[in-house]
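re the bet — no i am not wrong, look at it urself. input seq straight from the record:
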Amino acid sequence: MAISEEELLGPRALNRALLERQLLLHRVELPIPDALKHLFGLQAQAPMPPYYGLWSRLEGFDPHELGRLLTDREVVRLTLMRATVHLVAVSDALLLRPLLTTVIERNHNGAFGRRMGGADLGELEAAVRELLAEGPLGARELGRRLIERGIGGDVEAIGNATRVHVPLVQVPPRGVWGVGGHARYATIESWTGRELETEPSIDEVVLRYLAAFGPASVMDVQNWSGLTKLNAVIERLRPRLVTSATSAASSSSTCPTRRGPTPTHRRRCASSASTTTCCSDTPTAAGSFPRTSRGGRCSPTGASSTTCSSTGCCGRRGG
């Protein structure tokens, strides 16, 4: 059956839906943990992007509160989607880490596989857990100590392998507002007092991705996560989804049963290093965030905004 122009989701409609689900059309009053759960984590390869991202989304955001959540072990920084560091709630770390093991291993093998020197991965895991039982260590120090035990011979490769083959979190003060520090690691079990999920649900992950980033295609989900062959998951979930045609010739978008804003919904100026950047507003100095004028439009000191095109910066779908 032919689809009318009114039934197509054009770039502007997709733009507004993504911004609304990413809490970027207007700031919301949400506790930080609830926002992180909704967003399904924030990119945290560097310490500051989660602060920029949450300031852009939350009314009255206090960066010191996020630092407290890290030190109180309510949220954690660890390698997850696309084998990059993300800031997530502890419960989401325990869900995502086992599902993304293949992604993390694939990334490591592509960069360091030939430099592992035939290291026994079972011995590596056991030794890492033994060493970290004495306290957090950096990746290079872990690599050096493992080599001293006869596990591998390349400090960089073995050090990187520690957080690939053992689920490790970066411990504070790394990522704490106004403090910072080098990345040091502990096992997720010892740091949180909880175990990884033994039967993590990929269906839950896909549904939550769509709630935070949809409408989206299967390829969007795969690009966000690093996982592959998710067509079967979408097909299984299809009775629970709304499927809409897009203006791209042969693509479709799926989202949980919930309508987004209209294509004419005005966006506000917002900055997010984690997902979609709609203007260049950023904190102007350590300990200082830009002010927001009435109406939700940004007015930072010394920041220059850029125009967001409907198919440009708002087309990215990954945190």
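see?? Residues 101-112 form the longest helix (12 residues). told u. also The chain has two domains: 1-24+201-319, 32-192. so pay up
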